[in-house]
Automatic annotation (TrEMBL):
Origin species: Maritalea porphyrae
Lineage start: Bacteria, Pseudomonadati, Pseudomonadota, Alphaproteobacteria, Hyphomicrobiales
NCBIfam families cross-referenced by the UniProt entry: PRK07589.1
Transmembrane segments: none
Family: Belongs to the ornithine cyclodeaminase/mu-crystallin family.
UniProt-recorded name of the protein: Ornithine cyclodeaminase
SUPFAM superfamilies on file: NAD(P)-binding Rossmann-fold domains (SSF51735)
């Protein structure tokens, strides 16, 4: 990545307002498809990336995390929190921002909001996993948990897998009403349900995406029939799961980065040596995904830094054409790199210089 050294102090910034306008100009479904392509491309070169479980700081109220990675040429990180009680105060459960930087110089090249972008990349990654794991020609998806992620998930599965019907359930009927309203007119048959069991009727795929920071049983073993693909994306920290352990024991389990998922995902319920397959191995053809029509497949998705890197790469390659960004003067740029003090002195006002 090469840049004009005379402009390295200027960093493009995509604000929340910019991101909303970018999504609307590109189109949410087109953007989901594009990010999915970048995610899949990066999973194909998985072995190039620095990989580490996210760095968390836990509290009674939630968690704050850093998610870094690099492919050797570009470095990226995301700051993200998870505070389930925030919605009671009118706040987001998850907020985030991220950055890309040039490895050669260490200079940042893009700063962006990532609350919206994370929702897009999570949905895109879910659809990429289902593309390789779900039964072919799946047309019906149950969506259990109808919060901030739900519409993005539904539209990603429609765009990338051809899902035609989404069956919604949330313990809060207002969340289901919100999701159904937002999905109206978007080419999906939307069915609002009054229980998880009803939502699963006729579904070949189920996405679980709830926010409570606790061990929970959103799906029980008797609810899961043969051939189902489970997209479990709500469990994303120690002590938080959504599936009964018996479901895991019946499923082929696929994860992003095993060391992180054993800490945060559904598989924290299992022994540390319980066999799982990393999704990149399936995408590159090194290991099998679904092995039979009747197999239950489980994508234990907790979110990994490479996916954020992919989403930021997509944004880097497309934000300029939309015009929705601003330049920030973020990096000190003295005439002499050794004279940072002198640069500060040159900022004196006439009054300060005269004193």
């Amino acid at each position: 990545m090469k840049f004009d050294p005379n402009s390295l102090n200027i960093v493009p910034f995509v604000s929340v307002d910019h991101m909303m306008k970018i999504v609307l100009q590109i189109g949410v479904e087109k953007m989901l498809k594009g990010i999915a392509e970048y995610v899949e491309d990066d999973f194909k070169r998985w072995e190039l990336f620095d990989k580490t479980p996210r760095v968390p700081s836990h509290s009674e109220k939630g968690v704050i995390e850093l998610m870094p990675t690099s492919d050797g040429e570009v470095y990226g990180f995301k700051y993200v929190n998870g505070h389930p009680a925030n919605t009671k105060e009118g706040l987001q459960t998850v907020t985030a921002f991220g950055m890309l930087a040039d490895v050669e110089t260490g200079y940042p090249v893009l700063l962006s909001e990532m609350t919206i972008l994370t929702a897009l990349r999570t949905a895109a990654t879910s659809a990429v996993a289902a593309k390789h794991l779900a039964a072919k020609n799946a047309k019906v998806m149950a969506m259990i948990g109808n919060g901030a992620q739900s519409e993005f998930q539904a539209l990603a599965f429609k765009t990338i897998l051809g899902i035609e019907e989404v069956r919604l359930y949330d313990i809060d009927p207002a969340a289901t009403e919100k999701c159904a309203r937002n999905l109206a007119g978007r080419g999906l048959n939307v069915v609002s349900c009054t229980s998880s069991q009803e939502a699963l009727e006729g579904a070949q795929i189920v996405t679980t995406c709830t926010a409570d920071k606790q061990y929970a049983t959103i799906l029980t073993d008797n609810m899961v029939g043969s051939g189902l693909h489970i997209n479990a994306i709500g469990g994303d920290c120690p002590g938080k799961t959504e599936l009964h352990k018996d479901i895991l024991l019946r499923s082929g389990i696929f994860v992003e980065y095993t060391p992180q998922t054993r800490i945060e995902g559904e598989i924290q319920q299992l022994d540390d040596d319980y066999p799982v397959t990393e999704l990149w191995e399936v995408i590159t053809g090194q290991k099998e995904g679904r092995t039979s029509d009747g197999q239950i497949t489980l994508f234990d998705g907790v979110g990994f830094a490479v996916e954020d890197f992919s989403a930021l790469r997509y944004l880097r390659d497309h934000y300029k054409e939309t015009g929705f960004y601003e330049d920030l003067d973020m990096i000190a740029d003295p005439d002499d790199p050794r004279d940072l003090f002198g640069m500060v002195q040159r900022a004196k006002t006439p009054e300060q210089a005269a004193s």
